Amino acid sequence: MVEYLVFLTISASVYALFALGLNLQWGFTGLINFGHVAFLTIGAYVTVLLEMRLGVPMFISVLIAVLGCCLFGLIIGFSSIKLREDYLAIVTIGAGELVRLIVQNEEKLTNGTFGLQGYNLPLGGFQPNFLGKLVMIAALTLLAIFALWQLLKNIKLRLKLAQEIQGKSFQPPSRFSTYFWGAVAIILVLICYINGVIALYNYTYKAGLMLLTLIALAVVYWGLETLVHSPWGRVLKAIREDEEVATSLGKNVFWYKLQAFMLGGGIAGIAGAFYSWQLTTIYPSSFEPLMTFNAWIIVVLGGAGNNAGVLLGAIIFWAYDSLTRFIFSNMPFFTSAQVASFRVMVIGLILMLLMLWRPQGILGKKGELSLNV
Q1: Which end of the chain is more exposed for a tag (fewer CB within 10 A), N or C?
Q2: Displacement of CA 216 from its chain's centroid (Å)
C-alpha cells in the first residue's frame, strides 16, 4: 500500500507540473494548446539522451531539455500564435504528432519503437544512512508545511473574495464548498505526508524520486505564483480577457503570448524529465495525445487560471483513476476493454456535471476581474 501511494504521489506531481505549464498558456493567457505533450516528449528524450550518449550530468541535462522545450515553443509560437484560437489548436495538435512521429521513426538517437532503456536514474544507487533519512524526512516536512500554508492562504483569499463581492451580479464562492474542498485537500496532504515519511524511512528509489518530484513541484508552483501575481502576470490576464485593451495600453501582446507559450513549454519539459525517471524506460507510445487531454481535464477540473486548483485537480484525477481501476475491474459482464471505456465515460459525465455546477472549476473564480486579482 505504501509503494502504491508513492506511485500515485509521483504520478500526481508529474501531471501537476505538466498541467501547470498548460494552465499558464491557457488559464492565464488564453492560448489553446492541444499538442502540449510535445513539450513533455522533448523534455524526456533530451534529458535521457544527453545523459546516455554524452554523459552530461542529469541536472545539466534537465536544464538543456528545458531550454530545448522553450526553443520549440519559440518556433511553434512565433509562426502560429497570431492565429485564431481554433487554428492555433489545430497547429499545436500537428506539432505534437510531429514530435511523436519523429521519436518513433528515428532509430539512431531515439532507437525508434524500441525506446530507451538502461539510462541512469537520480538517486538510483543512493542508500542513505539514518541521518540521511532524517534529513529527507525533514525536507518532506517542510514541503508539507508549505503545502498547508498555501492551502490555508487560498482558502482565506476565497473567503475574502466571497465577502467582497457579496450581492454583486455574479455568484460569489460558496463558503461550504470552500471549506469542503479545503478540508479534502488538507486531508490528502496529510495522507501523502504520513505515507511519504514511512516510505523515506524504508528508503527505496521511488521514495527518493517522490521527494525530488515534490521539491521540483513546490519550486515551480512558487515561481509561477510569484510571476502571475506580478505586473507581467496581470498583463497575461488582461490579454486573456481582451487583447485590444492590452494593445491600447501599449503592451506587445504577441511578445507576451510568446513568453507564456515558451515558459509553459519549459515547465512541461521539467515534467518530461521526471516522467522518464518514473518510467525508467521510455517508448514513443508513452507520449500519446491522450496525455494532453488528461492535462486539460486537470486544469478544467481544478479551475483554469488557478495554480492551486491545478494541484487539486491532479490529486482528484489520480484518486479517481486509482479508485475506479479497483472498483470497476470487479464489475460482472464487462471485459477489460469495456471497463476502460466505461471509466472514460464516467469521467466525461463528471466533467459535464461540473460544467453545469461550477463551470469555472473547483477553485476557479467565476466572473473574475483579472486586473483586480
Answers
A1: N
A2: 12
Residue 169: CB atoms within 10 Å: 6
CA–CA dist 63, 79 (Å, integer)? 25
Q: 148 to each of 140, 183, 299, 356, how far by Cα in Å?
A: 12, 11, 21, 30
Give the model confidence (pLDDT) of 297-341 as tens digits. 899 888 888 888 898 888 888 887 777 777 666 666 667 667 777
DSSP-assigned beta bridge partners for residue 274: none
DSSP label of 56: -
Q: CA–CA distance from 292 to each of 2, 19, 89, 287, 289 (Å)?
A: 28, 9, 12, 9, 5
- Delineate the domains of the chain, giving CATH numbers in brackets: 2-372 (1.10.3470)
State phi, psi for 93 to the nearest 5 degrees: -60, -45
Q: Specify whether the CB–CB gap between 188 and 315 falls below 8 A.
A: yes
How far apart (Å, rounded) are the C-alpha atoms in residues 292 and 97? 11
Give residue 373's pLDDT. 40
Give phi and psi for 282, each to the nearest 5.
Answer: -120, 140
* Residue the block writes with cell 531550454: 67
pLDDT value of residue 370 = 40
**String of b and e for 59-80 (b: at least 16 CB within 10 Å)?**
eebbbbbbebbbebbeebbeeb
* Cα 366 from Cα 114, distance rounded (Å): 47
- Enumerate residue ranges in the chain where pLDDT < 50: 169-170, 172, 369-373
Q: What is the three-class DSSP state of 280?
A: coil
> Which letter does DSSP use for residue 286 in this model?
G
State the distance between the two ends of the chain, measured CA to CA, in whole angstroms.
Answer: 41
Amino acid identity, position 258: L
- Could you tell me if 22 and 293 are in contact, meaning their C-beta atoms sit under 8 angstroms apart? no
Give me 344's grid cell.
472514460
The Cα–Cα gap between 151 and 1 comes to 26
